Amino acid sequence: MNRFADVLAFRRERLENTFLDPRERFRPRTEVLEVRFDPLTGRTAHVAHLGAIRPVPLSWAEVDVPARRVHCPFCPERREAATPCFPPDLIPEGRLSRGEALVVPNIAPYDQVSAITILTHRHLVPMPDFTESQLVDALTVTLDFLRRVRPRLSSTAAALLCWNYMPPSGGGLVHPHVQSLVTHFPGNLYRAELDAAADYARRTGRSYWRDLVEAELQAGERYIGCTGRGHWLAAFAPVGTIGEILGVFPDVETVEAYDESLCRETARAFRRLFRFFETWGASSFNAALCFAPAGWSGWCAYWRVVPRTYLNNEEKPADANVFQVVLREPVSSVVPEDLCRAARPFFVQET
Protein backbone atom coordinates (compact mmCIF):
# COMPACT_ATOMS: atom_id res chain seq x y z
CA MET A 1 0.00 0.00 0.00
CA ASN A 2 1.30 3.47 -0.95
CA ARG A 3 1.19 5.60 2.22
CA PHE A 4 1.85 8.71 0.08
CA ALA A 5 -1.16 8.19 -2.20
CA ASP A 6 -3.16 10.98 -0.55
CA VAL A 7 -0.56 13.67 -1.36
CA LEU A 8 1.81 12.24 -3.98
CA ALA A 9 0.13 11.04 -7.17
CA PHE A 10 1.87 9.26 -10.05
CA ARG A 11 -0.90 9.99 -12.50
CA ARG A 12 -0.92 8.79 -16.09
CA GLU A 13 -3.50 8.60 -18.86
CA ARG A 14 -3.36 5.78 -21.40
CA LEU A 15 -4.16 6.75 -24.98
CA GLU A 16 -4.56 4.63 -28.11
CA ASN A 17 -3.93 5.55 -31.74
CA THR A 18 -5.14 3.21 -34.51
CA PHE A 19 -4.07 3.39 -38.16
CA LEU A 20 -3.85 1.11 -41.18
CA ASP A 21 -0.23 -0.01 -41.34
CA PRO A 22 1.35 -0.25 -44.85
CA ARG A 23 4.05 -2.51 -43.37
CA GLU A 24 1.34 -5.06 -42.54
CA ARG A 25 -0.71 -4.86 -45.78
CA PHE A 26 -2.75 -2.03 -44.28
CA ARG A 27 -4.08 -4.09 -41.41
CA PRO A 28 -5.25 -2.06 -38.39
CA ARG A 29 -2.50 -1.38 -35.87
CA THR A 30 -2.99 0.23 -32.48
CA GLU A 31 -0.18 2.07 -30.73
CA VAL A 32 -0.44 2.77 -27.01
CA LEU A 33 1.03 5.90 -25.48
CA GLU A 34 0.79 7.74 -22.19
CA VAL A 35 0.46 11.25 -20.90
CA ARG A 36 2.09 11.51 -17.49
CA PHE A 37 1.66 14.23 -14.89
CA ASP A 38 4.66 15.33 -12.86
CA PRO A 39 3.95 14.50 -9.19
CA LEU A 40 5.23 17.89 -8.01
CA THR A 41 4.08 20.51 -10.51
CA GLY A 42 1.42 18.66 -12.52
CA ARG A 43 3.13 19.51 -15.84
CA THR A 44 2.52 16.92 -18.52
CA ALA A 45 4.93 14.77 -20.51
CA HIS A 46 4.15 12.37 -23.33
CA VAL A 47 5.68 8.91 -23.29
CA ALA A 48 5.19 8.09 -26.94
CA HIS A 49 6.88 7.33 -30.25
CA LEU A 50 8.21 4.36 -28.31
CA GLY A 51 11.40 2.82 -29.65
CA ALA A 52 11.52 5.25 -32.58
CA ILE A 53 14.39 7.23 -31.04
CA ARG A 54 17.38 5.44 -29.56
CA PRO A 55 20.79 6.68 -28.47
CA VAL A 56 23.18 7.04 -31.40
CA PRO A 57 26.89 6.94 -30.42
CA LEU A 58 28.97 9.87 -31.61
CA SER A 59 31.84 9.48 -34.04
CA TRP A 60 34.77 10.84 -32.03
CA ALA A 61 36.76 11.40 -35.22
CA GLU A 62 34.06 13.81 -36.41
CA VAL A 63 33.83 15.54 -33.04
CA ASP A 64 37.58 16.05 -32.52
CA VAL A 65 38.39 18.29 -35.49
CA PRO A 66 42.09 19.34 -35.48
CA ALA A 67 41.30 22.71 -37.09
CA ARG A 68 39.03 23.53 -34.12
CA ARG A 69 41.29 22.07 -31.47
CA VAL A 70 44.11 24.51 -32.29
CA HIS A 71 41.79 27.42 -31.42
CA CYS A 72 40.27 25.93 -28.25
CA PRO A 73 40.55 28.52 -25.44
CA PHE A 74 40.30 25.82 -22.76
CA CYS A 75 43.40 23.83 -23.73
CA PRO A 76 46.29 24.38 -21.27
CA GLU A 77 48.56 26.17 -23.72
CA ARG A 78 45.94 28.87 -24.37
CA ARG A 79 44.08 29.18 -21.05
CA GLU A 80 46.10 32.03 -19.57
CA ALA A 81 45.82 34.24 -22.64
CA ALA A 82 42.35 33.27 -23.89
CA THR A 83 40.19 33.12 -20.75
CA PRO A 84 39.10 36.17 -18.73
CA CYS A 85 39.69 36.90 -15.05
CA PHE A 86 37.24 37.90 -12.34
CA PRO A 87 37.40 41.47 -11.00
CA PRO A 88 39.59 41.72 -7.88
CA ASP A 89 36.65 42.73 -5.70
CA LEU A 90 34.87 39.46 -6.60
CA ILE A 91 37.73 36.95 -6.79
CA PRO A 92 41.06 38.56 -5.79
CA GLU A 93 43.00 35.64 -7.32
CA GLY A 94 41.42 36.35 -10.72
CA ARG A 95 40.65 32.67 -11.31
CA LEU A 96 40.14 29.64 -9.05
CA SER A 97 41.83 26.31 -9.59
CA ARG A 98 42.05 22.83 -8.14
CA GLY A 99 43.87 20.00 -9.87
CA GLU A 100 43.14 20.29 -13.58
CA ALA A 101 39.97 22.33 -12.97
CA LEU A 102 39.96 26.09 -13.55
CA VAL A 103 37.07 28.49 -12.83
CA VAL A 104 36.93 31.57 -15.06
CA PRO A 105 34.27 34.13 -15.95
CA ASN A 106 31.97 33.23 -18.82
CA ILE A 107 33.07 35.51 -21.65
CA ALA A 108 29.47 35.36 -22.93
CA PRO A 109 27.62 35.57 -19.59
CA TYR A 110 24.10 34.28 -19.02
CA ASP A 111 23.42 36.26 -15.87
CA GLN A 112 24.85 38.67 -13.31
CA VAL A 113 27.17 35.97 -11.93
CA SER A 114 28.15 33.54 -14.70
CA ALA A 115 31.25 31.34 -14.70
CA ILE A 116 32.78 28.39 -16.50
CA THR A 117 34.82 25.60 -14.97
CA ILE A 118 37.23 23.88 -17.33
CA LEU A 119 37.36 20.27 -16.13
CA THR A 120 40.46 18.78 -17.74
CA HIS A 121 43.69 19.51 -19.54
CA ARG A 122 42.71 16.96 -22.19
CA HIS A 123 40.67 18.42 -25.04
CA LEU A 124 38.38 15.48 -25.78
CA VAL A 125 37.31 13.18 -22.94
CA PRO A 126 34.80 10.40 -23.65
CA MET A 127 32.59 9.74 -20.64
CA PRO A 128 34.31 6.53 -19.43
CA ASP A 129 37.68 8.34 -19.41
CA PHE A 130 36.78 10.87 -16.72
CA THR A 131 38.62 10.03 -13.50
CA GLU A 132 37.08 10.37 -10.07
CA SER A 133 39.65 13.00 -9.09
CA GLN A 134 38.90 15.13 -12.17
CA LEU A 135 35.20 15.17 -11.33
CA VAL A 136 35.77 15.77 -7.61
CA ASP A 137 38.14 18.66 -8.28
CA ALA A 138 35.77 20.29 -10.78
CA LEU A 139 32.71 19.96 -8.54
CA THR A 140 34.54 21.12 -5.43
CA VAL A 141 36.12 24.23 -6.93
CA THR A 142 32.88 25.17 -8.73
CA LEU A 143 30.84 24.94 -5.52
CA ASP A 144 33.56 26.85 -3.67
CA PHE A 145 33.11 29.62 -6.24
CA LEU A 146 29.33 29.63 -5.79
CA ARG A 147 29.67 29.76 -2.00
CA ARG A 148 32.06 32.70 -2.23
CA VAL A 149 30.07 34.82 -4.68
CA ARG A 150 26.44 34.18 -3.72
CA PRO A 151 26.55 36.47 -0.64
CA ARG A 152 27.80 39.24 -2.91
CA LEU A 153 24.54 39.07 -4.88
CA SER A 154 21.98 37.91 -2.32
CA SER A 155 21.44 34.96 0.00
CA THR A 156 18.03 34.55 -1.61
CA ALA A 157 19.54 34.05 -5.07
CA ALA A 158 19.63 30.57 -6.59
CA ALA A 159 22.94 28.78 -7.15
CA LEU A 160 23.09 26.45 -10.16
CA LEU A 161 25.67 24.20 -11.78
CA CYS A 162 24.96 23.22 -15.40
CA TRP A 163 26.71 20.86 -17.83
CA ASN A 164 26.26 20.55 -21.60
CA TYR A 165 28.39 17.60 -22.68
CA MET A 166 29.11 17.17 -26.40
CA PRO A 167 27.31 18.74 -29.39
CA PRO A 168 23.93 16.93 -29.18
CA SER A 169 23.42 18.65 -25.80
CA GLY A 170 23.98 22.10 -27.30
CA GLY A 171 27.57 22.19 -26.05
CA GLY A 172 29.47 24.60 -28.26
CA LEU A 173 32.94 23.41 -27.23
CA VAL A 174 33.86 19.74 -26.83
CA HIS A 175 36.57 20.52 -24.27
CA PRO A 176 34.86 19.47 -21.01
CA HIS A 177 33.45 22.37 -19.03
CA VAL A 178 30.53 23.17 -16.74
CA GLN A 179 28.72 26.44 -16.14
CA SER A 180 27.71 27.98 -12.83
CA LEU A 181 25.25 30.76 -12.10
CA VAL A 182 24.04 32.80 -9.18
CA THR A 183 20.76 34.32 -10.22
CA HIS A 184 17.35 35.62 -9.21
CA PHE A 185 16.01 34.17 -12.46
CA PRO A 186 16.88 30.45 -12.35
CA GLY A 187 14.49 29.27 -15.04
CA ASN A 188 10.79 28.56 -15.30
CA LEU A 189 10.96 24.87 -14.39
CA TYR A 190 13.13 25.53 -11.34
CA ARG A 191 10.82 28.31 -10.18
CA ALA A 192 7.70 26.17 -10.67
CA GLU A 193 9.27 23.31 -8.70
CA LEU A 194 10.48 25.64 -5.97
CA ASP A 195 7.00 27.10 -5.51
CA ALA A 196 5.30 23.70 -5.71
CA ALA A 197 7.67 22.16 -3.16
CA ALA A 198 7.03 25.05 -0.76
CA ASP A 199 3.28 24.55 -1.20
CA TYR A 200 3.68 20.81 -0.58
CA ALA A 201 5.57 21.56 2.66
CA ARG A 202 2.83 23.95 3.80
CA ARG A 203 0.06 21.42 3.05
CA THR A 204 1.71 18.31 4.46
CA GLY A 205 4.38 19.52 6.87
CA ARG A 206 6.84 17.28 4.98
CA SER A 207 9.47 17.56 2.28
CA TYR A 208 8.30 16.59 -1.20
CA TRP A 209 11.76 15.29 -2.08
CA ARG A 210 11.97 13.00 0.95
CA ASP A 211 8.50 11.69 0.22
CA LEU A 212 9.40 11.18 -3.44
CA VAL A 213 12.47 9.11 -2.55
CA GLU A 214 10.51 7.01 -0.05
CA ALA A 215 7.63 6.49 -2.48
CA GLU A 216 9.93 5.48 -5.33
CA LEU A 217 11.94 3.18 -3.06
CA GLN A 218 8.71 1.56 -1.93
CA ALA A 219 7.39 1.14 -5.47
CA GLY A 220 10.71 -0.01 -6.91
CA GLU A 221 9.75 0.66 -10.54
CA ARG A 222 11.94 3.73 -11.06
CA TYR A 223 14.40 3.54 -8.14
CA ILE A 224 17.84 3.00 -9.66
CA GLY A 225 20.03 3.00 -6.58
CA CYS A 226 21.52 4.74 -3.55
CA THR A 227 25.11 6.00 -3.47
CA GLY A 228 25.18 7.15 0.16
CA ARG A 229 23.17 10.29 0.77
CA GLY A 230 22.04 10.47 -2.85
CA HIS A 231 19.17 8.54 -4.42
CA TRP A 232 19.02 8.03 -8.19
CA LEU A 233 15.69 7.66 -9.96
CA ALA A 234 14.28 7.48 -13.44
CA ALA A 235 11.99 10.52 -13.64
CA PHE A 236 8.30 9.62 -13.79
CA ALA A 237 7.51 12.42 -16.27
CA PRO A 238 10.85 12.86 -18.07
CA VAL A 239 11.88 16.07 -19.80
CA GLY A 240 14.26 14.29 -22.20
CA THR A 241 13.55 12.54 -25.49
CA ILE A 242 15.43 9.44 -24.30
CA GLY A 243 14.56 9.81 -20.66
CA GLU A 244 15.79 11.59 -17.56
CA ILE A 245 17.56 10.57 -14.37
CA LEU A 246 17.19 12.41 -11.06
CA GLY A 247 19.80 12.40 -8.31
CA VAL A 248 18.09 13.51 -5.09
CA PHE A 249 19.91 14.44 -1.86
CA PRO A 250 17.00 14.78 0.61
CA ASP A 251 19.01 15.99 3.60
CA VAL A 252 21.02 18.60 1.67
CA GLU A 253 19.40 21.95 0.89
CA THR A 254 21.89 24.68 0.10
CA VAL A 255 25.17 24.97 -1.76
CA GLU A 256 26.86 25.56 1.61
CA ALA A 257 25.89 22.05 2.73
CA TYR A 258 27.16 20.26 -0.40
CA ASP A 259 30.62 19.45 0.92
CA GLU A 260 33.60 17.63 -0.55
CA SER A 261 32.38 14.23 0.62
CA LEU A 262 29.21 14.77 -1.41
CA CYS A 263 31.28 15.87 -4.39
CA ARG A 264 33.15 12.57 -4.17
CA GLU A 265 29.91 10.61 -3.88
CA THR A 266 28.53 12.49 -6.88
CA ALA A 267 31.67 11.82 -8.90
CA ARG A 268 31.32 8.09 -8.25
CA ALA A 269 27.63 8.20 -9.19
CA PHE A 270 28.41 10.00 -12.44
CA ARG A 271 31.07 7.44 -13.30
CA ARG A 272 28.38 4.77 -12.93
CA LEU A 273 26.03 6.78 -15.13
CA PHE A 274 28.80 7.24 -17.67
CA ARG A 275 29.40 3.49 -17.85
CA PHE A 276 25.69 2.96 -18.36
CA PHE A 277 25.45 5.65 -21.04
CA GLU A 278 28.46 4.20 -22.88
CA THR A 279 26.92 0.72 -22.88
CA TRP A 280 23.53 2.09 -23.88
CA GLY A 281 24.97 4.15 -26.74
CA ALA A 282 24.43 7.65 -25.33
CA SER A 283 27.41 9.96 -25.91
CA SER A 284 25.95 13.27 -24.72
CA PHE A 285 23.87 14.73 -21.91
CA ASN A 286 22.63 17.85 -20.16
CA ALA A 287 22.87 18.00 -16.39
CA ALA A 288 21.99 20.55 -13.73
CA LEU A 289 22.49 20.69 -9.97
CA CYS A 290 19.92 22.90 -8.25
CA PHE A 291 20.05 24.31 -4.73
CA ALA A 292 17.53 26.09 -2.56
CA PRO A 293 17.88 29.77 -1.78
CA ALA A 294 18.74 30.38 1.85
CA GLY A 295 15.77 30.01 4.19
CA TRP A 296 13.55 28.19 1.68
CA SER A 297 11.71 25.28 3.28
CA GLY A 298 10.80 21.96 1.72
CA TRP A 299 13.63 21.88 -0.78
CA CYS A 300 16.74 19.82 -1.37
CA ALA A 301 19.72 19.65 -3.70
CA TYR A 302 19.03 17.54 -6.75
CA TRP A 303 20.52 16.68 -10.13
CA ARG A 304 18.69 16.38 -13.41
CA VAL A 305 20.63 14.31 -15.95
CA VAL A 306 19.12 14.16 -19.44
CA PRO A 307 20.86 11.95 -22.03
CA ARG A 308 20.92 13.52 -25.49
CA THR A 309 21.47 12.16 -28.98
CA TYR A 310 21.39 13.02 -32.63
CA LEU A 311 18.64 11.11 -34.41
CA ASN A 312 21.37 9.90 -36.78
CA ASN A 313 25.01 10.72 -37.51
CA GLU A 314 24.44 11.64 -41.16
CA GLU A 315 22.15 14.68 -41.08
CA LYS A 316 22.60 15.07 -37.29
CA PRO A 317 19.02 16.14 -36.57
CA ALA A 318 18.37 17.27 -33.01
CA ASP A 319 16.36 15.11 -30.61
CA ALA A 320 14.16 18.10 -29.71
CA ASN A 321 11.52 19.48 -32.07
CA VAL A 322 8.38 21.61 -32.12
CA PHE A 323 6.81 19.77 -29.19
CA GLN A 324 9.65 20.57 -26.80
CA VAL A 325 10.78 23.91 -28.23
CA VAL A 326 7.50 25.63 -29.11
CA LEU A 327 4.80 23.74 -27.19
CA ARG A 328 7.08 23.15 -24.19
CA GLU A 329 5.80 19.56 -23.99
CA PRO A 330 8.39 16.86 -23.26
CA VAL A 331 8.10 13.70 -25.35
CA SER A 332 10.07 10.64 -24.27
CA SER A 333 10.52 7.65 -26.56
CA VAL A 334 11.93 5.69 -23.63
CA VAL A 335 9.64 4.35 -20.91
CA PRO A 336 11.02 5.49 -17.52
CA GLU A 337 10.61 2.06 -15.97
CA ASP A 338 12.61 0.51 -18.83
CA LEU A 339 15.34 3.14 -18.35
CA CYS A 340 15.50 2.24 -14.66
CA ARG A 341 15.89 -1.47 -15.38
CA ALA A 342 18.69 -0.74 -17.84
CA ALA A 343 20.59 1.61 -15.49
CA ARG A 344 20.12 -0.24 -12.19
CA PRO A 345 22.83 -2.92 -12.73
CA PHE A 346 25.46 -0.19 -12.97
CA PHE A 347 24.54 1.03 -9.49
CA VAL A 348 24.94 -2.35 -7.83
CA GLN A 349 28.39 -2.98 -9.31
CA GLU A 350 31.52 -2.19 -7.33
CA THR A 351 33.17 1.06 -8.36
Can you offer a commentary on this structure?
By secondary structure, the protein is α+β, with helices and mostly antiparallel strands. The protein has one domain (60-347): HIT family, subunit A (2-Layer Sandwich), CATH 3.30.428.10. The protein is 28% helix and 24% strand. It has nine helices and 14 strands. It has helices spanning 60-63, 66-69, 76-82, 132-153, 188-204, 208-219, 260-280, 322-325, 336-343, and strands at 11-21, 27-37, 44-47, 96-98, 101-105, 113-118, 158-165, 177-183, 223-226, 231-234, 245-249, 284-290, 301-308, 331-332. A ten-stranded antiparallel sheet has the order 4-5-6-8-7-12-13-11-10-9, with helices on both faces. It has a four-stranded mixed sheet with strand order 1-2-3-14, with no helix packed on it. The chain is globular, with a radius of gyration of 21 Å.
Question: Concise description?
Answer:
With about 350 residues, the protein is of the alpha+beta class. The chain is built from nine helices and 14 strands.
CATH topology, anyone?
HIT family, subunit A
Mean pLDDT value? 93
Query: In sequence order, what are the helices and strands, one letter per element?
Result: EEEHHHEEEHEEHHEEEHEEHEH
Poorly predicted runs: none
The helix fraction, in percent, is: 25-40%
Provide the number of structural domains.
1
Spatial gap, N to C terminus: 34 Å
Give the biggest sheet: 10 strands, antiparallel
Shape summary:
globular
CATH homology superfamily: HIT-like
Structure classification? alpha+beta
Instruction: Going across the biggest sheet, name each strand in turn.
Output: 4-5-6-8-7-12-13-11-10-9
The quaternary state of the protein chains shown equals: single chain
Rg, please? 21 Å
Briefly, what CATH class?
A: Alpha Beta
Going by CATH, the architecture would be 2-Layer Sandwich
How much β-strand is present in the residues?
Answer: 15-25%
Number of DSSP helices?
9
What's the β-strand tally?
14
